[in-house]
Amino acid sequence: MTEPAEFRDRMRRVWGGADYPALAERLAPAAHDLVDALAPGPADRVLDVAAGTGSAAALARERGAAVVATDLAPRMVELGRAATAGTGVVWLEADAEALPLPDGAAEVVQSSFGLIFAPRPEVALAEARRVLVPGGRLGFTAWTPDGFMGRMTAAMLPHTGAPPGLPDQMDWARPDVVRDRLTAAGFGEVTLTERALPWHFDSPADMTAFFRAHSPAHAAAAAGLGEERAAAMFADIEAMTGPPGEPVRLDAAYLVVTATD
Ligand SMILES: C[S@@+](CC[C@H](N)C(=O)[O-])C[C@H]1O[C@@H](n2cnc3c(N)ncnc32)[C@H](O)[C@@H]1O
């Protein structure tokens, strides 16, 4: 079992280890879906957990909410601060499992593809609930196991191995598991809505080059494997997506999950 502190320190470095903003752009439509589902307004204080470069945080701010954006990785906080400069979004470096906010500090807690990286889901959900006011709204997005990101993650595992002692990230989009988790954490009125990001790449090789350059998880996996084994992993991913040299069109399916305190 990876020690929580050791894992956290590694993740702080890993998430700063790629040129993330281009991936954030590809994920941005999901941030729109999430913020639309939560519909924050001027009367709301919004906490964005694992905010990355701030796509969802900025949208909540545009709707008039007071927004605090948090992320574990110093590099993400730096990029997010720059991307939202002048908008009034407040940034803090923080672990989703230990939020530096008092109880009842937010009407809305949101996380676009961020909460799903917490190594102890029950701890992260308890923290989200603690900082919400009674009746507050939680929302997050999560990759579905059968969608492209779920299948790509599964294709990587024979190469990288599963991180020891960590839960399956895809559980965040398995309806039974996520409902049970939310209920156990004290949330109710759970809604699950499946959506997809329509992604296009010029070729399978272009697609893996994109992930290698812009996805911190892929960059870290490749660095850990070394060139030869990383090439085998990326070849398996490319084989999932179509013939060499042909354009790639895929739907990266995800759930928008909402719940009420
Ligand atoms: C895929 S990115 C999503 C970022 C952003 N929400 C977006 O939609 O672009 C995942 C983010 O989770 C952050 N993260 C990972 N583990 C975390 C943790 N335990 N606590 C807080 N943030 C974490 C990473 O630093 C990264 O910014």
Question: Biggest β-sheet: count, sense, barrel?
Answer: 7 strands, mixed
Shape: globular
Order of adjacent strands in the largest pleated sheet? 3-2-1-4-5-7-6
Q: Name the poorly predicted regions.
A: none
In whole angstroms, the N-to-C terminal distance is 31 Å
Rounded average pLDDT: 96
SSE topology:
Elements lengths: L3 H11 L6 H18 L6 E4 L6 H8 L3 E6 L2 H10 L6 E4 L12 E7 L8 H11 E12 L4 H13 L14 H10 L3 E14 L2 H11 L1 H10 L1 H15 L6 E13 L1
Parallel strand pairs: 1-2, 1-4, 2-3, 4-5
Antiparallel strand pairs: 5-7, 6-7
Helix pairs in contact: 2-3, 6-10, 8-9, 8-10, 9-10
Bound molecules: S-adenosylmethionine.
Structure commentary:
- This protein is α/β, with parallel strands linked by helices.
- It has one domain: Rossmann fold (3-Layer(aba) Sandwich).
- The chain has 10 helices and 7 strands.
- It has helices at 4-14, 21-38, 55-62, 74-83, 121-131, 148-160, 175-184, 204-214, 216-225, 227-241; strands at 45-48, 66-71, 90-93, 106-112, 132-143, 188-201, 248-260.
- The protein has a 7-stranded mixed β-sheet with strand order 3-2-1-4-5-7-6, sandwiched between helices.
- Helix 6 runs antiparallel to helix 10.
- It is globular.
- The protein starts with a helix and ends with a strand.
- S-adenosylmethionine binds at residues 11, 15, 24, 27, 31, 50-53, 55-56, 71-73, 76, 95-97, 112-114, 117-118.
- S-adenosylmethionine is lined by residues 11, 15, 24, 27, 31, 50-53, 55-56, 71-73, 76, 95-97, 112-114, 117-118.
